[in-house]
Amino acid sequence: MTIVYALVSVGKTVLAEYTATSGNFPTVTRVLLAKIPNQDGKMSYVYDNYMFHYVVEDGVCHLCMSDEMNKHRIPYAFLEDMKGRFVAQYGRQEPLQAIAFAYNEDFSKAIQERMDFYNSDEADRTIDSIGAVKSQIDDVKGIMVQNIEKVLERGEKIELLVDKTDRLNQQAFRFESSSRSLRRAMYWRKMRCYAALGIAGVVLVIVATATMCGGLDFRHCRRHH
User: Which pTM does this prediction carry?
Assistant: First the structure.
């Protein structure tokens, strides 16, 4: 499970957002935000191979995008955590009057920190043991999942692009490192073979000479001199 993008907004006005990758999903979310009802509620939308989950409470929308289908437990736990921290820091009334990205400088760091945690194995192991969060996500089983195209008007279909360059670069780096290690191992293996052949050749020359000269003391050869 990977949460790749998250934001906090009031209506279409984004107050803070964070992503660890790149793509056009901020554009997709702006279209989606225009369709999300202002009343309190939760919903999940399918879009290509991604899921958008949101929680609206007191006019503030907390939304995230994940790359795993049909798994809502961690995304909604993340949203509830993010919502609690946002309310604790900014209250419930102040954000309703805030301008776009008013909290981005500070709260994007909080989003990043919580996103890193909820993308970790530790979160998957411990999330259900956190009573306060568990009570909030018990209702996730009843969340209705809709295809996002059902809420978009004709002509609003936007191709969702998520940049996998970072992952591809990491794979290329690992492949290059492995190739270098393999070439180095093959080189030293070849050198060892050459060394072994050289030593064997020297030994054969010594043995042949010793045989011709009457032994390892080369006595017959010395007499000729």
Answer: 0.61
